[in-house]
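User: My collaborator sent over this chain with a note saying "see what the structure looks like." That's all I know about it. Can you take a look?
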Amino acid sequence: MKRWAPLVGLLILAVLASLLLGYRPITPVDLWQALTAPDPTDAAHVTIRSIRFPRTVAGLACGGALGAAGLAIQALTRNPLADPGVLGINAGAAFAVVLGSLVLGQADAGLLAVLAFPGAALAAAAVFALGGGLRGNVSPVRLTLAGAALNALLLSLVTAAVLMRGETLDVVRFWIVGSLAEARARPLTEMALAAGAGALLILALAPKLEALSLGDALSRGLGTRPGRVQAGALVCISLLTGAAVAIAGPIAFLGLMVPPIARRLVGAPLRPGLIAAALLGASILLLADTAGRLLFAPAEIRAGVMTALLGGPIFVLIARRIRPGAVG
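Assistant: Without extra context I'll predict from the sequence alone. Here is the result:
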């Protein structure tokens, strides 16, 4: 229980900071009244219920999904540099939504959000195939290079697609660098349910995913079918990443920096690691979003920029610690 206390405490701190801190500070008394006896004429109550509460829920769902997806994809590829953002899965989901909005016009936000899932799945499958997955010899370096190339290609296509729209600047900002600022306009309930389904499925699949780390021959001897497990894991990762992108756009590096911290806190077993990664991912994204609102208030630094500032150095640190042949 001791090892879970810091994670739960950090999450509670992050939620309170997200609700209370900002350009307009809110007192705990106002927060309590806004939740229990809201007054529609009170500016503080309106701020909490209309802006900060949806934003906090979005951060919980998106951060939790990306944290779990990051650990799942690292377990699947046995690559500590794997991350939905680095491997282009976020960009694949974003491209599918932007392309859908061009084709369908001002369609229902929920309908467009659904497109994030096939986009994420196709991008994940493409990177896995380019990284040598079809031949059964996934290489961390090849996988990372394939993901980086696909990520650059897809983000370029996203930029080209949104430049064709009238409301270009805000759309480019959202789909190039993710943000929680538009949480009210997103289908939060539906995407949170999709992320929850992905989380439950990957928790159920965790023992078989761990068996794959023993190698194909040994895992087959234990009754595991690698192809089915890998396909199931990709479906879960696509659900988690697609839901996160539909809520907040492409948030980079969160799935990369969370897994090593989660494993250090709760140990190597994958199932508790996934839960810890979800708690940490939600906490870090909420704290990054809150810090971005405070640093240059009333201007705002997007949550995707803040996670990139944190994640970039961590990516370099992890890459420097990898020994040749240690993974893959």
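A starting point for your reply to your collaborator: The chain has a mean pLDDT of 80.
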